[in-house]
Amino acid sequence: AAGVIQSPRHLIKEKRETATLKCYPIPRHDTVYWYQQGPGQDPQFLISFYEKMQSDKGSIPDRFSAQQFSDYHSELNMSSLELGDSALYFCASSLEQPAGNEQFFGPGTRLTVL
Amino acid sequence: DQQVKQNSPSLSVQEGRISILNCDYTNSMFDYFLWYKKYPAEGPTFLISISSIKDKNEDGRFTVFLNKSAKHLSLHIVPSQPGDSAVYFCAATVDSGNTPLVFGKGTRLSVIA
Known about the structure:
- By secondary structure, chain A is mainly β.
- Helix content of chain A is about 0%, strand content about 50%.
- Chain A has a single domain, classed as Immunoglobulins (Immunoglobulin-like), CATH 2.60.40.10.
- In chain A, β4 (about 30-35) and β5 (about 45-50) form a beta hairpin.
- Chain A is globular, with a radius of gyration of 13 Å.
- Chain B is mainly beta.
- The mean pLDDT of chain B is about 95.
- The interface of A and B includes residues 50 and 107 of A.
């Protein structure tokens, strides 16, 4: 079965650079979520989109923005990167209905900021 | 403040025995709970879930128990297998369809052959 696809899998950037992470949800899933997992931490919710509209917003810094496109893929744009942005970034997708909230996660993008 | 707590960072169990992973939550609005398993270099994989209208849900070797009054849930794996060795995350949400998950910090399970 098709899973959530994330690209790139690994990304190395310098401080103050920008980065774009991409997520392709499971076909027919209408909701996309972004989570950030720091070293030894739990995944923290950043932002989500339902039917291309922002649905919920978590602890996403103002330097980050995201959007969901007409084909339901999503991109997380990160600017003015800081050392503390080094983390695993997971994208997940789900169906809004029936309510049950099983979110299916991609393999993650490991971002390293030097 | 951590709304979902997994107080055991690690657990070692002999193959064939039962693994019990515990999770506590503080937010009484949570009404849907999930367990995810995570291997290194992979994303979390959905394992099993339970709605607050139930106190038990079983799927093969995996059973989740929910005690709403204690705000506590547990995942039982029996019999445990070496392939079960992974980090297990407890997650909670409000079951309104597409709400974000709140995760615990995870418990690393090691099943020893």
